[in-house]
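Reply to thread "Modeling small-molecule complexes from scratch"

Following up on the discussion above, here's a worked example others can learn from. I took a protein sequence and the SMILES for magnesium ion and predicted the complex. Inputs first:
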Amino acid sequence: MTSLPESPSGAVPRAAIPSATAPLPPPKIRCQRLAKVFENIGRARNGFAALSDVNLEVREAEFLAVVGPSGCGKSTLLNIIGGHVRPTLGLVTVDGLPVTGPSKWVGMVFQNFGLFPWRTVAGNVEFGPQVAGLPAAECRDLARRYIRLVGLERFVNAYPKELSGGMKQRVALARALANDPGILLMDEPLGSLDAQTRETLQDEVARIWADTRKTIIFVTHNIDEAVILGDRVAVMTGPPGRVIELIEVDLPGSREPAARRYSPRLLEYKSHIWDLIRRAGATLPGAAYGEVVYR
Ligand SMILES: Nc1ncnc2c1ncn2[C@@H]1O[C@H](COP(=O)(O)OP(=O)(O)O)[C@@H](O)[C@H]1O
Ligand SMILES: [Mg+2]
């Protein structure tokens, strides 16, 4: 705990005392009562409820991990926040403004990388700045900077097919960062990597977050990964998808994944999250096919 400066009399100066009534900064991202129903699909007469009443606030520069079983609506939630999918009900705001579509302030990174195979590493990373109309020299400089940040200097002229999965994911990360978004939305970005590469990339993502102070929402179905990376973990179940608990991760010592991985308390968080998901899975009405009854 930081100690407060003392005045000569030993009294604590008023200005140094954080006021209990001082307003907290507004959240960077706020989801209010989000619901999503996919219409016109065969499984359910009334549409398929992918999300139901999701409320979530994410602070500036926070790393929020979202964890939940496959099919519980994680990608749908992320796509709504990114402005790629419209919610059926509810509102998302970023910096207090409603999200109405994709924006350059919100970057996305996916599991399947989404690289352009016909562009080199540099070409892929330059893409965003080029589309934004920046001068060629500036695009090159930005690309070089972010390629260095992800440790791929030696591969600037390589094509995606010449890279391993871990390297492709680094390029995808550099490409998202080159647009300098305030927010990064990551949808199971490490899901297709082998265990060892995955750990290395977890370390990289944490380092890049610490260096750049982006607000990150990182979706994963891997409970370990969520606890190792997150400031907080939002636990989702579904369908219909909802956040059943928000957990502040408080592991003693370092914020580094390498330290968290071997913390005995990691197991406590894991078993708690497993319990939540198991219990919710057993009790959610309509969990098997997500039929909705919105009227
Ligand atoms: N475009 C769509 N049309 C119909 N159903 C969809 C669509 N996108 C997602 N779904 C359904 O919504 C549910 C949640 O999907 P998704 O958000 O991809 O889950 P997750 O990312 O957690 O695996 C799934 O049952 C999925 O089949
Ligand atoms: Mg998904």
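What I'd highlight from this example: The chain has eight helices and ten strands. The helical segments are 74-81, 121-131, 136-149, 165-177, 195-212, 223-229, 257-260, 264-283. Questions welcome below.
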